[in-house]
Specification:
There is one protein chain. The protein has about 170 residues and is of the alpha+beta class. The protein has six helices and seven strands; from the N terminus they run E-H-H-H-E-H-E-E-H-E-E-E-H. A seven-stranded antiparallel beta sheet has the order 1-5-6-7-4-3-2. It is globular and about 40 Å long.
Length: about 170
């Protein structure tokens, strides 16, 4: 994760065109990533939870929120197709974003966060950034609003994703 701290750039037209074309749609899509993977691979997507606990934010993550975040839950998962990890995702859920009307994000288990986030169509995105991780591939992070509360999601597209796409 240390390599990621300084390498994010805001997603705009110029940044997107610097990315290999095969990754441009994946990085810029504003809908549910789980649904996009399912559609492109024509296979169900499963979630392998790696960790789901209270922990501290990385400094560059904390800077993206408009206010100090003292307590948060961080959920790290693989999105898998045919039991093969194709995306690594890290979700930052501030305590204020996962209580009250948003408490359903605390009960995800092995369900994708997108089931909650995109329940009523598209979720508002405040910021989208992209990065390249040498030897790994491309990633994006998005600051969403869930019923008025921020949730930061970082997603890294693993090379195995392309092998799972059905032509």
């Amino acid at each position: 994760m240390k390599k990621l701290r300084q390498s994010w750039v805001n997603l705009d037209h110029v940044a997107l065109h610097a990315v290999p074309q095969i990754w441009q749609d994946w990085l810029s899509d504003a809908g549910s990533l789980t649904q996009l993977i399912a559609n492109k691979t024509q296979s169900p997507v499963s979630v392998e939870v790696l960790s789901d606990r209270n922990q501290n934010l990385l400094n560059d993550e904390a800077l993206l929120f408009n206010k100090p975040i003292n307590h948060c839950r961080i959920r790290e998962v693989y999105l898998c197709v045919n039991d093969v990890p194709v995306v690594f995702a890290r979700s930052i859920l501030p305590t204020s974003s996962s209580t009250g009307i948003n408490r359903d994000v605390l009960q995800l288990g092995s369900k994708p966060l997108g089931e909650v986030l995109f329940k009523k169509g598209k979720a508002p995105i405040l910021l989208r950034q992209i990065t390249e991780v040498p030897g790994l591939g491309w990633g994006r992070r998005s600051l969403y609003q869930l019923r008025g509360h921020p949730i930061l999601i970082s997603e890294f597209f693993l090379p195995e994703l392309l092998a799972q796409i059905k032509s």
